[in-house]
Amino acid sequence: MQPTDAAPGRRPRRSDTTRAAILEAARERFAADGYERATIRAIARDAGIDPSMVMRYYGNKEGLFAAASEFDLRLPDLTALPRQEVGAALVAHFLDRWEQDETLTALLRVGVTNAAGAERMRAVFQEQVGPVAAAVCPDPAQAGTRAALVSSQILGMAVSRYVLRLPPAVGMPRAEVVAWLGPTVQRYLTAERP
Questions:
Q1: Cα separations (Å) of 157 from 72, 94, 161, 194?
Q2: What is the mean pLDDT of each run of 10 residues along the chain (194 residues)?
Q3: How far apart are the C-alpha atoms of 101 and 86, rounded to whole Å?
Q4: Are 113 and 65 in contact (CB under 8 A)?
Q5: Residue 177 per-residue DSSP state
Q6: How far is CA 161 from CA 7, 74, 170, in A?
Q7: Is 192 helix (H, G, I), strand (E, B) or coil?
Q8: From CA 95, how far away is CA 162, in angstroms rounded?
Q9: Can you say whether the dihedral through the CA atoms of 115, 28, 65, 107 is positive or negative?
């Protein structure tokens, strides 16, 4: 009997490799072309497969976009930091995420132009920023409002710096962005309700 990497009773499958190739091609195509202009045919061509395989795995373009835009913000545990540093730490973290991964920028582009993209962006921020806000704000019942305020600052800078590429926003050194936005995000997270 020969050793096998497959689970007992299961043959090794190419589907995982095919899915990974489709998702990589979709992320790149959505980032380059946006949701509206990206096509299943172009994504399949980029992945080196037949378009019917994309449809088989993901059903349609919206299903593919939802899968390709699964995104972990990898938010830090802000409760481990001194309370007065959480705003700056969160801003620095988001700058890192945008500068290290085009997927989040692609999701943002699509989110401002397409209903499916907007829904995906809302879900990412609601599911991931909401609990962070709840962990550090003085009243967890206000976490949703505080997360929305934090998101307004983070997303506003992201649109200015990484999507629209406004020269003053692009030209600001990272430390300056943190210095400007950190206190505002800090207030949104930890200040008493006005």
A1: 19, 10, 6, 24
A2: 44 75 90 85 95 92 84 88 95 92 78 81 89 93 95 94 94 97 97 90
A3: 22
A4: no
A5: H
A6: 47, 21, 5
A7: coil
A8: 10
A9: negative
Residues with Cβ within 8 Å of 44's Cβ and at least 6 positions away in sequence, in order, are 22, 25, 50, 51, 53, 54
Burial 75-94 (b: 16+ CB within 10 A, else e): beebeeeeeeebbbbbbbbb
Helices 174-190/115-136 angle, 10° precision: 70
What are 111's two structure tokens? Answer: 């989110």
Alpha-carbon dihedral angle through residues 97, 98, 102, 105, given to the nearest 10 degrees: 130
Q: Domains in the chain, start-ordered, CATH in brackets?
A: 15-68 (1.10.10.60), 78-190 (no CATH)
